[in-house]
Amino acid sequence: MSDRTVIQTDAAPAPIGPYSQAIKTGSLLFLAGQVGLDPRTGKFAGSDAATQCEQILRNIEAILNYAGMTMGHIVRCNVYVADLNDMPAINKVYARHFLYQPPVRTTVQVAALPGGARLEIEVTATLPSASSSADRLG
Please, what are the domains in the chain? Predict the structure, then answer.
C-alpha cells in the first residue's frame, strides 16, 4: 500500500494540467509550483511581481492548511522568476511571510512562465518528528 496522498483544495487554484496541487508522503508535503492566480476568479491577482508573490504565498498557505501544516513547516522553496530585477519587490513580500527561520531557497530566472506569470514558487514542507535532530538543534 502506498503512503502517498493527493492534496487538493478549492482554496487554491486548480491544476491546469495533469498534476496534483500537492502530494503528501510520510511527513513530507511536496507542492506543485504556484503562480499568482486568484482561486476565485482564475485570473492573476495583479500584473506586478509583488502582487503575484502575495497571491502565490496565500495559495501555498491554503494548500498547507488543508494538509494540516503551516508556512512554518516549509523547509525548501524554489522560486522561478521571469526577471531577476523583480527580486527586491519579491523579497519584500516573501520576508513578511517568513519572519522566523526562513526555509532554504533557490531562485532561478527562466525564459517564460505559465500564462505570462512574473514568478512561480514551489515548496517542500515537513512535519518534524518529536525526536528529530532539527528539534535538538533548535
Answer: 4-137 (3.30.1330.40)
